[in-house]
Amino acid sequence: MKTDLKSYIKIYFMLITQDFKSKMQYRADFLISLAAMLATNFTGLISFWLIFRTIPAIKGFSYNEILFIYGFSLLASVPMQLFFDNLWQLGDYCMNGNFLRYCFKPVNIFFYYVSETFDAKGLGQLAFGLIMFIYAWIRTGIPVTAGNIAVLLLMMFGASMSLIGLMIMSSAFSFVSLYGNSMMSFMIRFRDYSRYPVSIFNPVFKFLFTFIIPMGFLAFYPSLYFLRPGDHNLMSLLTPIAGIIIFYLGYKLWIWLAVRYAGTGT
User: Whole-prediction pTM value?
Assistant: First the structure.
């Protein structure tokens, strides 16, 4: 069997088509999950609104600027939600031994595993985040230019790759621990901090969110390029590079542990 790019694209669409058909057998579950996701995001927006009813700014960032960072974070999280949601099931597959069925196919094991699931609920987050982001973009008065749009897409790519890489890295612990899902849950909780300026935290947490658990690259640093065009730092420009590096490290760790997975035993 060929495993060139064309073959992988064909396989991918075959897999997600089957996944979509199976999910449409339970449409009520899909709609309930979609409503829950929208409600969660809306609740987060309400919390911001309540905070800024009494506080005009946080560390020099206005309500609309915080909204811009929040919307950026939501949009950057969409690819993880849409294309890599199956990572959450890895712990169960490793515990019951079902992961072994992915080890005997003539395709990349990581590609085969993540391609089995396409979480369409992420489209709801995409719509919600896009509306919020466009509103914040307009309210902050950022010019709509070809250059800004190009940089935005590049920054969004880097931010998305950063989150995906961190979640891949977290899920990889499922190969060696019974608490792999707990590691993912731990990591996803830190994602909430990406919706706030890193500058509001003390030096220890600034270092943590920049170099250890680099959630700052998910929204804050790339947003600075637009919100503080004359004052953004090197971290803003490093967002795409950081995203590629984090994704690469996460992928390599995942593959390294996956090929050493020996099942649950007898």
Answer: 0.88
